[in-house]
Amino acid sequence: MKKIAIVGASGYSGEELVRLLLSHPHVELSAVTSRQYAGQPLARIFPRFAHHPRTATLCFSEPDVAQLAQQAEIVFLALPHGVAAEYARPLLQHGSIVIDLSADFRLRDPAVYQEFYAHDHPAPELLGQAVYGLPEFYREQIRTASLIASPGCYPTGILLPTLPLLKAGLIQPTGIIANSLSGVSGAGRKAELDYLFCECNESVRAYGLPKHRHLSEIEQELSLAAGTAVTIQFTPHLIPVNRGILTTLYLTPTTPCRNSAEAAAVGEKIAAAYRAAYAQEPFVRLLEGRALPDTKNVTGTNVCEIAWRLDPRTGRLLVVSAEDNLVKGASGQAVQSMNIRCGFPETAGLM
Amino acid sequence: MKKIAIVGASGYSGEELVRLLLSHPHVELSAVTSRQYAGQPLARIFPRFAHHPRTATLCFSEPDVAQLAQQAEIVFLALPHGVAAEYARPLLQHGSIVIDLSADFRLRDPAVYQEFYAHDHPAPELLGQAVYGLPEFYREQIRTASLIASPGCYPTGILLPTLPLLKAGLIQPTGIIANSLSGVSGAGRKAELDYLFCECNESVRAYGLPKHRHLSEIEQELSLAAGTAVTIQFTPHLIPVNRGILTTLYLTPTTPCRNSAEAAAVGEKIAAAYRAAYAQEPFVRLLEGRALPDTKNVTGTNVCEIAWRLDPRTGRLLVVSAEDNLVKGASGQAVQSMNIRCGFPETAGLM
Amino acid sequence: MKKIAIVGASGYSGEELVRLLLSHPHVELSAVTSRQYAGQPLARIFPRFAHHPRTATLCFSEPDVAQLAQQAEIVFLALPHGVAAEYARPLLQHGSIVIDLSADFRLRDPAVYQEFYAHDHPAPELLGQAVYGLPEFYREQIRTASLIASPGCYPTGILLPTLPLLKAGLIQPTGIIANSLSGVSGAGRKAELDYLFCECNESVRAYGLPKHRHLSEIEQELSLAAGTAVTIQFTPHLIPVNRGILTTLYLTPTTPCRNSAEAAAVGEKIAAAYRAAYAQEPFVRLLEGRALPDTKNVTGTNVCEIAWRLDPRTGRLLVVSAEDNLVKGASGQAVQSMNIRCGFPETAGLM
Amino acid sequence: MKKIAIVGASGYSGEELVRLLLSHPHVELSAVTSRQYAGQPLARIFPRFAHHPRTATLCFSEPDVAQLAQQAEIVFLALPHGVAAEYARPLLQHGSIVIDLSADFRLRDPAVYQEFYAHDHPAPELLGQAVYGLPEFYREQIRTASLIASPGCYPTGILLPTLPLLKAGLIQPTGIIANSLSGVSGAGRKAELDYLFCECNESVRAYGLPKHRHLSEIEQELSLAAGTAVTIQFTPHLIPVNRGILTTLYLTPTTPCRNSAEAAAVGEKIAAAYRAAYAQEPFVRLLEGRALPDTKNVTGTNVCEIAWRLDPRTGRLLVVSAEDNLVKGASGQAVQSMNIRCGFPETAGLM
Known about the structure:
Four copies of one chain form a homotetramer. By secondary structure, the first copy, chain A, is α/β, with parallel strands linked by helices.
C-alpha cells in the first residue's frame, strides 16, 4: 500500500480524488490538507465518505511540505495555478512524486504560461522535467516521471478525439473548432453569484470568449502532433448539470468528402486510426452504429466516449466526445497516471 | 376583439399559444382543439390557466374545419408536419387566416420538403401564397398574407444573427457552422423514453447528426439572402432545461481579421449592420460590452439576444444568440405575425 | 399612473417586483435602489428587462429617503429584516405609503420579534399602524394602511389553507404540522457555498430545524384565527427548483373521520368553508376531483393552489398548497396589496 | 465466484443491479433478461457499462426459467409485482436462491396484498418461506433464506429510523407521520407523460394520496415491532432529482418533552437506542452535531443517513432520513442480502 497525500482536498477535484483514492486497492490516503478546514475531520466536511472505515481518523491538516513528504510517497496537488508550483518545488526536493492537477506544469514554454495566466511562471526551472499526464499519449514518459502535469478538463475532451487524426494526417491542422459544454463543477467550489443554483439552473451561456486559458495546452499538444503550429477556435459553455463535458469538434478531412463514396473511403481511414489509437485503451470508448456520446453514460467513470460522422453536404468531419470533467477530465486521469507511475494495473480503482 | 382558434392546443407550442393569447389585449380565444382531450375543460388539462376568467367556459373540441372557420377569423395550427396542411387547405377556402407553426409551408420547393420530411408535400399548390413568418425580414408580406408559415425554433435563432451580415456581404456564405443547444420542450410533449426526466437530467447529447430537418428552411433563407446556394453545418444538442435555445455561430468575415486593427475595422461594420437591422426591432436585443446571451434572460419572452466577438487569433467571427424555443422560436413569433397581420401594435400581448 | 420606488431591487424579490411593476398598467416604476449596483443601468444587471421601453433610462441609485419620497408615492422595501425598518420610519414621516417585504412589521409583539430575530425591534412604535398584507384576510385594513407588512413565503402557503378551517372550527388548533418544500430562490441572491448549483442540484435537505423564523408570524395569525395560542410544527426543506413552495399540512378535524361516512360529512363542511373563503378570490385556486397542487402550475403567477384529502385510516385531514415563493409568497402579493391600497383592480398587473 | 442472473434488467433497479454486480468481487453476472431487448448486447442498451470487460459478451436474453436455473445460483427479480411471483415459484423449485425486488413476497398476509395491490396474491403458498430483506433487522433469517423479499424504497427510509425507537418503547405507535420526497427514478423507466423531463423539472407535487401501496409493508413491520397494529400517515412527493429519497418523520415520544430538561433526558435515550441499533451497522449513518441528511451525501451509496431533533415547543420528535432509492432502497440492499446469504463480507461490492 503506497501512501498518498492530497494538497487542497476541499475543492471538487480534491473531493473526487478522495473518493477515488479511498476505494483504491493499492494505496492508503494518509493526508489531506485544506487551509480552510484544517483540524476538522474529513468526514464532517464530506459526509458521503463517512461510512468508509479509513475516514474515521482522517482530518484535514495545514499543508506542511516536510510533513507531507514524510506522510506520503506521492502527493497530488489540487490547488489553483500559481500556488501549485510553490508546493511542487520543495516536495520534489524532498523526493516526493508530484501529480499536479493545476495548469502550472502543463506548458513547455513559460512565455505561453505568462500570456495565458497573466503572471510569470513560478518555477520555470521545473518545466523540463514535467510530463503531460495524458496516458494515452505519454504513457512511457509517465512511468518514470517525478512531476506529472495532469491535463485540464476541456483539453482532455478535445485532445483525445483529435490527436490520432492529426497524427495520421487525416485532418487539416487549420480551421479546427471545438465547441464544449461543461457542467458547473468545472467552475470549482467558489462562493460566487454566477454559480448559484438560481443563476445556473434553467440557463445556458457561453463564457470566456474568445480566448480561454485551456487553449494554451490544447494548442501546444495539437502543434506537437501536427508538426506545425496549430491555432484553434474553442468556445466553452456552461450548462446546468453537476458533471460532464460534451465537446463537438468541427474538422476538415485532408481528403475530400463531398459525396458518399469519398466519405466511405475517408471513413474507413478514420475508423482505422481511432481503432489503432484506442482499441486497447481501457478508458476511451469508440461508439459504433448510431450511438452518440451522452455525458450521463460517462459521469462517475474515467471513460471518454467518442463518436464521429462525416457530412458529405459540407465535406466536414464532426466528432463528439463526452467525459466527466472531474474524473477523466481531472482526478480520475491523475489516478490513472499514478497507477502507471507506480506499476499498478492501469485500471486499479477506476473501474 | 378578434376571435382566434388554436388547432392542436395540447402540445407545448399549443399550450404556449394559449398562454399568450389569453392575456392578449386585442383577441379572444374562442376555440381550442385536441383529439386527445376533446370534451375536457382546458383548465383541467392546463391548471395554470384556470385562474383566467376566460377559461371558465373553454373546452377542448374535436378539430372541425367548418366550425373553426365560424368560430375564428384567425386559426393557429400547432400540429405535426403533414397534418397541418390538411387543415390549412380547407380553412383557407373558408376564408380563415392561417398561421401554421409546422414545417408544412416554410419551404418554397416541394422537392426540398420531400427530401427532408420524407413524404410528398401535402399541398404544394399553397406554397406560392405562404409567407415565411419571420417578421424582422418579411414584415411587409405578413401584413397581407393569408397563410403564414411560422419559422422553426432553431431557424429563428440562426437566421436572426446571420441574415443581416450575409445581406451586407460581411460574412462568407461558405463554411457557416451553427452549434445549437435546446431545452427539452423542443422535443414536444411525447411519451418517449428518451425524454423522461431521468434520461435528460444530468445529461447532454448531440442528436440528429448530421442532417436535421430544420436545415432545409435555414439554407433556403440564407441562400435567398446571399444570392447564392448556401450549405451550412448545423448540430443540435439536447440540454437539461425546459426552455431555451442557445446557438453559437462560427462565421468567416469577408475581410481579413487577423490582428486587432483589422478586427476593429470589421467590427465597426458588423456593429453597424446589426444596428441597422435591429436597433428598431422590439424583439431583437443586441448585447453590448462584455455581456453574452443567456437563455435565462429570454425564457418566457419573445426576445432574441445576440452578441458577437471577432477572434484575431483565428480570423473568425463568433456570434451567439439566445431565444425561448417556445416563444420567439414558436408561439410568440406566431403571435407577433398575427399582430402585424391584424394591424395590432406589434408588441401587443408580448411584453 | 402612480409613481413607485423599490428599495433593495437587486435581490430575487426585488427583481420580481421590477418584473411585475414594469408591466403594471397603472403604475410607473420611477426609482430602484441598490447599494451594490448604484449608478448602473437596471438593464445591465437584469438583461431580461432590457427590451422594456421604461428601462432605457432606469438606473440603480443609492437609497436616499428624501429623494425616494419625492420620486414615488409608494415605496416597496425589499431589504433584510432590521434594515427595512430604518427606511420605513422616515419614509412614513415623508408621507410615503410603505409596503415592506421584510419581517420587520409582521409581528404585533416586539418581544416575539426579539425572540425569533435575535435583536431588538428597530421601530416598535410603528407596529400599531402596520397591517399584515394577506389580502384574503386583511383586505379592508389594507385599503387604508400606510404601512403594509407583506407576509413571508412560507406563511402565505400555510395560512391560506389553514385559516378558513380554523376560523370555521373544523380543525383542532393543536397538533398542526406543516411540511414545506422550497425552491432555492427562497434563500436569496447570496454568494454562499450552500446555494451553489452543485450543492443544490441532485440534493434535497431539511434545514433550520426545529424553529424557523417564519413560525412567529404563522403562529401569530393562527392564534388570532383560533382565538387561542397555537403552536405548530413546521419543517422547511430545500429542493432543486428555482421557484415554488409546496406545503403539505397534517391537520386533525374537530369531528371524527374514521370511516367513509364520517369523512363524507366532514368533507362537505371543509369544502363549504373553502368555497366560502375563496370562491370569489382571484388568487386562490381550489382544486377539485383528483387533481393535486404542482408548483409548475403556479410559478410565475400570483395563484396559490389548494387541495385536500380526508384519510379515514388515520382520521386526519391532509391539505396541500402550492405557490410561487417570489410571487404570491412575496412580490406578487405585495403588488396585490398595492392594488387594493390604490383602488386599482386587484388583479391589475397580476394576470 | 458465484453465478448470478437478473430477470428484468432493463428498468432502473435492474440497471443498478447490473452496476453493482459487475464490480462485485465475489460474483459473476452470468445472465440478464429483458423481453424488450432480448438478443441485444447489454452494452448497447447501457453504454455506461461498455468499458467493463465482462459486458463484451453479455446479451439480454428472454427470461427462461430452466436456463436461468442452470446459469445462476442466485436470481434477482427486478420485475413488476404480480409478474415476479410467476418466476419465483419455478426458480425456487429448480433450487435457485431468489432475491425479489418487487412487492410480491413482502407481505405476510395475502389479504393485505389483495387490498393494496388490487389482485389476488399470485403465490400465497410461498409467503411462509419469504424473508423480509432488511438486513439490519432480519440478518439471521436472511442467512438461510431461499426467498428474500427486498423492501421497497420508501419502507426502507421509514423503517430504519423508526423501528429502533418503537422497539425500545421510546415513541408512541400512534400518530406517526412520514413525509417522503422521492427522485423520479422511483417511478421506473416508463414512457408516460407525467415523467417527461418538462413535466418533472421545475415541479414538485404530492401523489398517491392518501393510501400508497408501500403503506402495507411499512405498517406490517411497524406493527411487528410495536406489538400492536400500527396505522401511519404517509405522503410521497415527486421532486426533480434522478435519485434519492428524503423522509421527514413526525413522532411522539412516550415520555413528555415539553422543556429542555425533559428533552435532554429523552434525547439521551433516543441516542442510545440508535447507537445500540446502528453503531455497528455499515450502512446506517447516524449524523451528529448540527448535520442533517442530504440526499447528495448518499446517492450512489448503500448508506441511509439519519438525524433527529426533539422540539420542546411541540413535544415532538423529528427524524429525517436520506437514502438512494435505487441503492439502499432497492438494488444495493438486495446485494447486501445476497452478501449475507452467501457468506460474503456484508459490504462486498457496496463500498
